[in-house]
Specification:
With 443 residues, the chain is α/β, with parallel strands linked by helices. Among the domains are: 8-60, Ubiquitin-associated (UBA) domain (Helicase, Ruva Protein, domain 3), CATH 1.10.8; 75-80 and 124-275, Glutaredoxin (3-Layer(aba) Sandwich), CATH 3.40.30.10; 359-440, Roll (Ubiquitin-like (UB roll)), CATH 3.10.20.90. The protein is 51% helix and 14% strand. The protein has helices at residues 8-21, 26-35, 40-51, 90-122, 131-145, 157-167, 181-188, 194-203, 214-223, 253-345, 382-391, and strands at 67-68, 75-78, 170-176, 204-210, 230-237, 240-248, 359-365, 371-377, 399-403, 434-440. α1 (8-21) packs parallel to α3 (40-51) and α10 (253-345) crosses α11 (382-391). The protein is rod-shaped and about 170 Å long.
């Protein structure tokens, strides 16, 4: 990596980003940090979103999952005593305390119900123009004033809820109000404690925003935040996102961890059940996908087998057709030869009488050993001899005539009606008692 122009702080951030992301190329790490103004948290959150196939935190806002705000389903911890009322004393004081507690409880439940109803109508309002801007502006301001804190979620409340739902993790929501001294003390004390930071970073997502911003006001109305500081723990329960814990007021780091641990331990079973259900669904889906793939492979194998069988049948039919065509051609050829023999037999000259002048007696030796002897007039042509041999039933269909000694092949072939007649026996040099050999050309 080229270190020119990089400060020691920037180089250290590149090494940290590479260590937490596992990226091998330091130039890639540098480019990602540059695109996010060297903000390590923002760059890491964006990298996780991209790697997990989720949209960027700067993408268009989407509607948040519905959150159930039911006081009967959540732990409520409060470090604030209304109007600093002293602890009750005596029977009358105890009765008054219980009465006030019941009134406050039902008032709180009723106000939560009313807030939920109002929230249904407020959901119809247009989403703020720049909710991510409100979040990032708060994080920057908070970092400058309170440098020690858990890792903030770099995105909107809707995206934080969606990620918590998709990842089956707890979501810790904090709405900050700089105007209250309790919130300032809480940020400098409990929220900056190393053990609190480690607990939150390890076990949940942490989203925060300023109550003075449009996004902060909207979220505060939706989850009924009325005192400061307040931490809200949201998680999945029975396929719904619900508020599981409400931690109101400043407290010590040890007390804050105890409260968060109580909420997490009491509700971890729901997340574990959701994880188990999701795992079973994934396994079922994977098994179904594997079965579908196996069925497709089997179907393709069957189709390939059928295709090969069809090819084999077509090839066998083609070979059979070729054999039949060859047999038909051979039969046609034999029929043509038989017909030709009948036609040529009529052209063979009759045999001269014994002792007739200018006759030649010729002995023919056929390939099968048969001897044929016949007299021809010396003016008969070699074509006449060819026709005589060709028409004999024991003679081959294709042959040539040769003399014995000296051995020579005689000019002897079939001729058409319009062809010139072949040489005569006298011109071919044949003598009386000549022996000619019939050679089968197809043997």
């Amino acid at each position: 990596m080229d270190n020119d122009g990089l400060s020691n702080e920037q180089t250290e951030k590149i090494l940290q980003f590479q260590d937490i992301t596992g990226l091998d190329d330091m130039n890639v790490c540098r480019d990602i940090l540059i695109r996010h103004q060297w903000d390590l948290e923002v760059a890491f959150q964006e990298h996780l979103n991209i790697r997990e196939g989720r949209p960027s935190a700067y993408a268009t806002e989407s509607r948040a999952p519905a959150v159930v705000n039911d006081r009967f389903l959540q732990h409520v911890f409060s470090s604030i005593r209304a109007n600093n009322t002293p602890a009750p004393s005596g029977i009358g004081g105890l009765i008054g305390y219980v009465f006030n507690y019941m009134v406050n409880f039902w008032y709180s439940a009723f106000s939560s119900f009313v807030t939920t109803i109002i929230g249904l109508f407020r959901d119809q309002e247009s989403i703020p123009a720049d909710p991510i801007g409100d979040v990032l502006k708060f994080i920057q301001t908070y970092n400058e004033k309170y440098p020690d804190h858990p890792v903030f979620y770099q995105g909107t409340y809707s995206q934080a809820l969606s990620d918590a739902k998709n990842e089956l993790r707890f979501l810790l929501v904090y709405l900050h109000s700089e105007a209250t001294s309790e919130a300032t003390a809480f940020c400098r004390g409990a929220l900056a404690d190393p053990q609190v930071i480690e607990f939150v970073n390890r076990r949940m997502l942490f989203w925060a925003c300023d109550m003075a911003s449009h996004e902060g006001k909207r979220v505060a109305n939706s989850i009924s935040v009325r005192v400061h500081p307040t931490l809200i723990i949201i998680g999945m329960r029975a396929n719904k996102m619900i508020i599981m814990g409400r931690l109101e007021g400043d407290c010590s780091p040890e007390e804050l961890i105890r409260r968060m641990d109580t909420v997490v331990n009491d509700n971890e079973v729901w997340l574990n059940q959701a994880r188990q259900d999701r795992l079973e669904r994934d396994l079922t889906q994977t098994l179904r996908q594997q079965q579908d793939e196996a069925y497709q492979r089997s179907l393709q194998a069957d189709q390939e087998k059928q295709r090969r069988k069809q090819q084999e049948r077509e090839e066998a039919m083609r070979v059979q057709a070729a054999i039949e065509a060859e047999q038909l051609a051979e039969e046609q050829r034999k029929e043509d030869i038989e017909r030709l023999k009948l036609e040529l037999a009529e052209q063979v000259p009759s045999e001269p009488a014994t002792g007739a002048p200018d006759t030649i007696s010729i002995v023919f030796k056929l390939p099968n050993g048969l001897r044929l002897e016949r007299r021809f007039h010396n003016t008969n042509t070699m074509t006449d001899i060819y026709n005589f041999i060709f028409c004999h039933p024991d003679a081959p269909d294709s042959f040539e005539l040769t003399t014995n000694f000296p051995k020579r092949v005689l000019e002897c072939a079939a001729r058409g009606p319009n062809d010139e007649p072949g040489p005569t026996l006298l011109q071919s040099g044949l003598k009386n008692r000549e022996v000619l050999f019939v050679a089968d050309l197809e043997a």
